[in-house]
Amino acid sequence: MKTYEEIAKELDSNIPRDVISKREAAGGRYLDYLEGWYVIDRLNKVLGIGNWAYTSQVSLVERGEIEQRSGKAFSVHYIASVRLVANIGDKKTEFTDYGYGDGTDRGSQGKAHELAVKEAVTDGLKRCAKNLGLSMGLALYDKTREYVNEEKEEEGSNGRDTGVAPHAQGLPPAVHSGGGINRVQTVPKPRIDTKEKTTLDAIHVMQRVIFAKRLTTAQELKARLKEKYGVESSDKLSEDQAKVFLTELQGMVV
Amino acid sequence: MKTRSWSYSEFSLALQCQRRYKHVVIDKIKPESLESGDMAFGSALHAALNALLKKEDGQAVFRVFWDTYKDKKLFYSRFAWPELSDLGERFIARFERKEAHKYVPHTMEERLYGEYKGIKLEGTADFYGEYDGILTVSDFKTTAYAYEKSKILHSLQLNLYAFLGMQCLDFEPEALCYVPFVKATGGLQGVQKVTFDREKMFAMLDDMVTIIEGFSSSFPKNPNICKIGSNECPFIETCWGKITKEGEE
């Protein structure tokens, strides 16, 4: 069974470019989105089937008729309130969010309602899921596309072949989980890998800063090393000399 | 004016206001206004990226460089020292992870001095080398918001660097790049690249030379930029005297 840390890492990984779909929005722009089946599939693969569920409530917000090229059509609009609950390792969490859907059908009001309700619920589910991490859609909110990989999704990374869409298995049954809900802790930003620094490493860093700040030049520093320590470069200093030289450099920068 | 050596920033300054150019570049007057924290941040990040591309510890360089500003009184626009500290570390980490391996430096951060049609030119490009296998001149930018493509399509700065690279390093680029680090989003915007066009470069330099030849040794003031929005030129009193409450000099 995966640990919380393992699941969190998977949830917060980048999105592969090839799973992103595009749809046209107002003004001729195109918006990126993840398809519903992909989000459900990813929830199953990362959290495990049976380790997540959702409930929904839909509200009709508008209905009427619209004029299409082929004639009049029934048009309905729904808002869905969706509550997603999930087990992440030993932690339980839940999110509630809203989705929107509209449905249009020339022949059947019922069909129009069906399309709108499904769209609204799927939209709401996706909006809930994005809170679980970058790979669940959150990355698409970053306009720089920092967390989108140019590489295609690797085979097996989501448990399926690239380019072959899995069957949509239908939505999992709504389950009400018990109490004790905790919010998912976002994966903390990895702290910089601080390697153990030798005195020489520190000297190189200080020199780089000194040159960048134009406090002196490489030639002047070289002359100083020759004059005071009898060496051509800082790499040739003894450990004791290096410590003294480092203190000197630190004094220049402050 | 024609005998001076011109960098892109000095040329831009003179284009805005020749009197301001004189105060800053020729008279070297340091205005009383606070040093810009954002500019200091840009310098720190540049130093870090420079180190990183030379296979040194960019994060350590940034930390040391930026720490020197921690207790200094600087003017910050949107983000203060702690936020910029965090942003800087994230920028460097992301650049190291996603971009650094694409760069093969030939020359970095070296001041180059050239001449075109009798006008001395100088500049320090961040990077001459290969980016993704293509000979490129690159400049790293820290910016509040995302860079528009138009900024690179007609970039005199990059074309000037390209010219200096050709003349001084025998380096003819295939592409010109801006690499924006966007503070508002905390990420890399993505390299803004354009194919290098030799003819366009020379056309831009011709215009630059024409303008420089037209600068006046009397360094006229440009009142239009004395105050833009809430930004006031630091030399406004030097140029116009002290303004009383009634608006009289």
| Beta-strand share of residues of chain B | 15-25%
Give the end-to-end Cα distance of chain A, rounded to a whole number of Å: 52 Å
Mean pLDDT of chain A: 78
Number of strands of chain A: 7
What Rg of chain A is obtained from the alpha carbons, in whole angstroms? Answer: 29 Å
CA-atom Rg of chain B in angstroms: 19 Å
Number of strands of chain B: 11
Fraction in helix of chain A: 25-40%
SS-based structural class of chain B? alpha+beta
Distance between the termini of chain B: 31 Å
Given as residue ranges, the uncertain stretches of chain A (5+ residues, pLDDT < 50) are 152-196
What pattern of helices and strands is seen along the backbone of chain A? HEEEHEEEHEHHH
Descriptive account of the structure:
The complex is a heterodimer of chains A (254) and B (249). Helices cover 32% and strands 25% of the residues of chain A. Chain A contains six helices and seven strands; from the N terminus they run H-E-E-E-H-E-E-E-H-E-H-H-H. In chain A, the strands form three sheets. A three-stranded antiparallel sheet of chain A has the order 4-5-6. Chain A has a two-stranded parallel sheet with strand order 1-7. In chain A, a hairpin with a 5-residue loop joins strand 2 and strand 3. In chain A, helix 4 packs parallel to helix 6. About 18% of the residues of chain A have low confidence. Chain B has 249 residues and is of the alpha+beta class. In chain B, helix 3 packs antiparallel against helix 4 and helix 3 runs parallel beside helix 5. In chain B, the strands form three sheets. In chain B, strands 2, 5, 6, 7, 8 and 9 form a six-stranded mixed sheet that branches. Chain B has a three-stranded mixed sheet with strand order 1-4-3. At the A-B interface, helix 4 of A face helix 3, helix 4, helix 5 and strand 8 of B.
